[in-house]
Q: What sequence folds into this?
Protein backbone atom coordinates (compact mmCIF):
# COMPACT_ATOMS: atom_id res chain seq x y z
CA UNK A 1 0.00 0.00 0.00
CA UNK A 2 1.29 3.44 -0.90
CA UNK A 3 1.71 5.79 2.03
CA UNK A 4 2.10 9.53 2.38
CA UNK A 5 5.76 10.49 2.20
CA UNK A 6 7.76 13.67 2.63
CA UNK A 7 11.07 14.49 0.95
CA UNK A 8 12.95 17.48 2.31
CA UNK A 9 15.14 19.89 0.39
CA UNK A 10 16.92 22.88 1.90
CA UNK A 11 17.37 25.66 -0.62
CA UNK A 12 19.23 28.33 1.34
CA UNK A 13 16.90 29.86 3.92
CA UNK A 14 13.84 28.25 2.30
CA UNK A 15 12.81 24.75 3.38
CA UNK A 16 11.01 22.72 0.73
CA UNK A 17 8.83 19.76 1.71
CA UNK A 18 7.70 17.61 -1.21
CA UNK A 19 4.66 15.55 -0.22
CA UNK A 20 3.76 12.52 -2.27
CA UNK A 21 1.28 9.68 -2.14
CA UNK A 22 -2.28 9.61 -0.81
CA UNK A 23 -3.54 12.07 1.77
CA UNK A 24 -6.58 10.86 3.70
CA UNK A 25 -8.29 12.13 6.82
CA UNK A 26 -6.46 9.41 8.73
CA UNK A 27 -3.13 10.76 7.40
CA UNK A 28 -3.85 14.40 8.31
CA UNK A 29 -2.42 14.08 11.84
CA UNK A 30 0.78 12.56 10.45
CA UNK A 31 1.09 15.34 7.87
CA UNK A 32 0.54 17.94 10.61
CA UNK A 33 3.19 16.44 12.89
CA UNK A 34 5.70 16.13 10.06
CA UNK A 35 5.28 19.68 8.78
CA UNK A 36 5.16 21.32 12.22
CA UNK A 37 8.38 19.55 13.20
CA UNK A 38 10.07 21.20 10.21
CA UNK A 39 9.27 24.62 11.68
CA UNK A 40 11.67 23.90 14.53
CA UNK A 41 14.55 24.73 12.17
CA UNK A 42 13.07 28.25 11.80
CA UNK A 43 13.40 28.59 8.01
CA UNK A 44 12.62 31.94 6.42
CA UNK A 45 9.78 30.24 4.52
CA UNK A 46 8.27 26.77 4.21
CA UNK A 47 7.39 25.73 0.67
CA UNK A 48 5.16 22.66 0.47
CA UNK A 49 5.21 21.02 -2.95
CA UNK A 50 2.03 19.02 -3.58
CA UNK A 51 2.91 17.92 -7.11
CA UNK A 52 2.90 14.23 -6.16
CA UNK A 53 -0.06 14.36 -3.76
CA UNK A 54 -3.33 12.47 -4.27
CA UNK A 55 -6.31 13.43 -2.15
CA UNK A 56 -9.71 11.78 -2.45
CA UNK A 57 -10.86 13.16 0.90
CA UNK A 58 -10.83 16.96 0.50
CA UNK A 59 -11.45 17.54 4.20
CA UNK A 60 -7.88 16.42 4.85
CA UNK A 61 -6.57 19.46 2.96
CA UNK A 62 -7.41 21.79 5.84
CA UNK A 63 -4.22 20.53 7.49
CA UNK A 64 -2.24 22.94 5.31
CA UNK A 65 -4.21 25.92 6.58
CA UNK A 66 -3.65 24.75 10.15
CA UNK A 67 0.10 24.46 9.55
CA UNK A 68 0.17 27.98 8.10
CA UNK A 69 -1.64 29.38 11.12
CA UNK A 70 0.80 27.66 13.47
CA UNK A 71 3.74 28.98 11.43
CA UNK A 72 2.40 32.53 11.74
CA UNK A 73 2.39 32.24 15.54
CA UNK A 74 5.81 30.60 15.60
CA UNK A 75 8.36 30.90 14.07
CA UNK A 76 6.55 33.68 12.18
CA UNK A 77 7.29 32.46 8.66
CA UNK A 78 5.07 32.12 5.59
CA UNK A 79 3.86 28.82 4.18
CA UNK A 80 3.49 28.56 0.41
CA UNK A 81 1.83 25.71 -1.48
CA UNK A 82 3.01 24.67 -4.93
CA UNK A 83 0.03 22.97 -6.59
CA UNK A 84 0.30 22.42 -10.38
CA UNK A 85 -2.79 20.19 -10.46
CA UNK A 86 -5.92 22.22 -11.27
CA UNK A 87 -8.34 19.83 -9.57
CA UNK A 88 -6.31 19.85 -6.37
CA UNK A 89 -6.19 23.67 -6.39
CA UNK A 90 -9.97 23.72 -6.75
CA UNK A 91 -10.31 21.35 -3.80
CA UNK A 92 -8.08 23.60 -1.70
CA UNK A 93 -10.24 26.59 -2.66
CA UNK A 94 -13.44 24.77 -1.72
CA UNK A 95 -11.94 24.03 1.70
CA UNK A 96 -10.98 27.70 2.11
CA UNK A 97 -7.27 26.89 2.37
CA UNK A 98 -6.38 29.47 -0.29
CA UNK A 99 -7.66 32.20 2.05
CA UNK A 100 -4.97 31.25 4.59
CA UNK A 101 -2.08 30.03 2.45
CA UNK A 102 -0.62 31.30 -0.83
CA UNK A 103 -1.44 28.63 -3.45
CA UNK A 104 0.69 28.77 -6.61
CA UNK A 105 0.02 26.86 -9.81
CA UNK A 106 3.53 27.46 -11.12
CA UNK A 107 6.36 25.86 -9.07
CA UNK A 108 8.75 28.64 -10.11
CA UNK A 109 6.29 31.27 -8.93
CA UNK A 110 6.00 29.46 -5.60
CA UNK A 111 9.78 29.47 -5.18
CA UNK A 112 10.03 33.17 -6.05
CA UNK A 113 7.28 33.95 -3.55
CA UNK A 114 9.05 31.96 -0.85
CA UNK A 115 12.31 33.83 -1.40
CA UNK A 116 10.67 37.25 -1.61
CA UNK A 117 8.83 36.86 1.71
CA UNK A 118 10.36 39.10 4.39
CA UNK A 119 12.29 37.09 6.96
CA UNK A 120 11.61 37.75 10.66
CA UNK A 121 14.19 39.80 12.50
CA UNK A 122 15.89 37.57 15.02
CA UNK A 123 18.22 37.76 18.00
CA UNK A 124 19.72 34.44 19.05
CA UNK A 125 21.98 33.36 21.86
CA UNK A 126 23.35 29.95 22.80
CA UNK A 127 23.15 29.45 26.55
CA UNK A 128 24.14 26.95 29.20
CA UNK A 129 21.80 25.52 31.90
CA UNK A 130 23.37 27.52 34.71
CA UNK A 131 22.35 29.90 37.46
CA UNK A 132 21.82 33.34 35.97
CA UNK A 133 20.49 32.07 32.64
CA UNK A 134 16.98 33.37 33.37
CA UNK A 135 18.36 36.87 34.03
CA UNK A 136 20.21 36.77 30.73
CA UNK A 137 16.96 35.70 29.06
CA UNK A 138 15.19 38.73 30.49
CA UNK A 139 18.01 40.99 29.33
CA UNK A 140 17.88 39.60 25.80
CA UNK A 141 14.10 40.06 25.61
CA UNK A 142 14.45 43.64 26.86
CA UNK A 143 17.18 44.37 24.32
CA UNK A 144 15.00 43.03 21.51
CA UNK A 145 11.97 45.09 22.54
CA UNK A 146 14.04 48.28 22.72
CA UNK A 147 15.81 47.58 19.42
CA UNK A 148 12.51 47.00 17.62
CA UNK A 149 10.66 49.80 19.43
CA UNK A 150 8.24 47.66 21.40
CA UNK A 151 8.65 49.23 24.86
CA UNK A 152 5.14 48.11 25.83
CA UNK A 153 6.25 44.49 25.45
CA UNK A 154 9.33 44.68 27.71
CA UNK A 155 7.52 43.44 30.82
CA UNK A 156 5.59 40.51 29.28
CA UNK A 157 8.47 39.51 27.00
CA UNK A 158 10.86 39.47 29.95
CA UNK A 159 8.51 37.27 31.95
CA UNK A 160 8.03 34.83 29.07
CA UNK A 161 11.74 34.64 28.24
CA UNK A 162 12.61 34.10 31.89
CA UNK A 163 10.11 31.29 32.31
CA UNK A 164 11.05 29.52 29.09
CA UNK A 165 14.73 29.66 30.03
CA UNK A 166 14.01 28.49 33.57
CA UNK A 167 11.98 25.60 32.18
CA UNK A 168 14.93 24.55 29.99
CA UNK A 169 17.40 24.80 32.88
CA UNK A 170 15.25 22.86 35.34
CA UNK A 171 13.72 20.20 33.13
CA UNK A 172 15.92 19.78 30.03
CA UNK A 173 19.30 20.41 31.62
CA UNK A 174 21.01 20.68 28.24
CA UNK A 175 22.59 23.62 26.41
CA UNK A 176 19.85 25.56 24.65
CA UNK A 177 19.28 28.43 22.27
CA UNK A 178 17.05 31.39 23.04
CA UNK A 179 15.58 33.20 20.05
CA UNK A 180 13.57 36.43 20.08
CA UNK A 181 12.12 37.50 16.76
CA UNK A 182 9.38 39.70 15.43
CA UNK A 183 6.99 40.00 12.54
CA UNK A 184 4.47 42.79 11.95
CA UNK A 185 1.86 41.01 14.10
CA UNK A 186 3.83 39.14 16.76
CA UNK A 187 6.87 39.06 19.00
CA UNK A 188 8.09 35.46 19.10
CA UNK A 189 10.16 33.97 21.93
CA UNK A 190 11.49 30.44 21.74
CA UNK A 191 13.90 28.12 23.51
CA UNK A 192 15.30 25.09 21.73
CA UNK A 193 16.93 22.38 23.83
CA UNK A 194 18.13 18.82 23.28
CA UNK A 195 15.53 17.09 25.46
CA UNK A 196 12.82 15.48 23.28
CA UNK A 197 10.25 15.36 26.10
CA UNK A 198 7.47 17.89 25.41
CA UNK A 199 7.03 20.78 27.81
CA UNK A 200 3.89 20.32 29.89
CA UNK A 201 2.16 22.96 31.96
CA UNK A 202 1.99 22.07 35.65
CA UNK A 203 -0.95 23.04 37.84
CA UNK A 204 0.90 22.81 41.13
CA UNK A 205 0.83 25.82 43.42
CA UNK A 206 3.64 28.28 42.87
CA UNK A 207 5.08 31.23 44.69
CA UNK A 208 3.46 34.20 42.98
CA UNK A 209 6.12 36.50 44.43
CA UNK A 210 9.02 34.59 42.86
CA UNK A 211 10.81 36.31 39.99
CA UNK A 212 11.27 33.01 38.13
CA UNK A 213 10.12 29.42 38.37
CA UNK A 214 6.45 30.21 38.10
CA UNK A 215 6.17 27.78 35.21
CA UNK A 216 4.47 27.50 31.89
CA UNK A 217 1.19 28.49 33.50
CA UNK A 218 2.52 32.05 33.64
CA UNK A 219 3.62 31.81 30.01
CA UNK A 220 0.09 30.71 29.10
CA UNK A 221 -1.40 33.63 31.03
CA UNK A 222 1.00 36.18 29.55
CA UNK A 223 1.35 35.16 25.91
CA UNK A 224 -1.21 35.16 23.16
CA UNK A 225 -0.28 31.57 22.38
CA UNK A 226 2.41 29.06 23.30
CA UNK A 227 3.39 25.51 22.45
CA UNK A 228 5.97 22.76 22.57
CA UNK A 229 7.11 21.62 19.14
CA UNK A 230 9.26 18.52 18.57
CA UNK A 231 12.44 19.01 16.56
CA UNK A 232 14.55 16.46 14.72
CA UNK A 233 16.72 16.72 17.82
CA UNK A 234 15.10 17.86 21.05
CA UNK A 235 12.23 20.32 21.05
CA UNK A 236 11.30 23.99 20.88
CA UNK A 237 9.13 25.67 23.48
CA UNK A 238 7.76 28.90 22.05
CA UNK A 239 5.38 31.74 22.80
CA UNK A 240 3.88 34.58 20.78
CA UNK A 241 2.95 38.03 22.07
CA UNK A 242 0.79 40.44 20.12
CA UNK A 243 2.99 43.21 18.75
CA UNK A 244 0.00 45.48 18.14
CA UNK A 245 -1.76 45.31 21.51
CA UNK A 246 -0.89 48.18 23.83
A:
Amino acid sequence: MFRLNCVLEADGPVLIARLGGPLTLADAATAWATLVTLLADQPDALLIDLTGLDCDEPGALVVFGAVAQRASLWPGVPVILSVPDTELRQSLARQGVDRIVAVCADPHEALVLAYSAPAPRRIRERMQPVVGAARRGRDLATEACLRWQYPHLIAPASVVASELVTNAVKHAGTPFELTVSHTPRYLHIAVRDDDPRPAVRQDDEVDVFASTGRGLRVVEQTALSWGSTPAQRGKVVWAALSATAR
Summary: DSSP finds seven helices and ten strands in the chain. The chain has two domains: 5-116, 121-242. Residues 201 and 216 are 5 Å apart (CA to CA). The first strand starts at residue 5 and ends at 11.
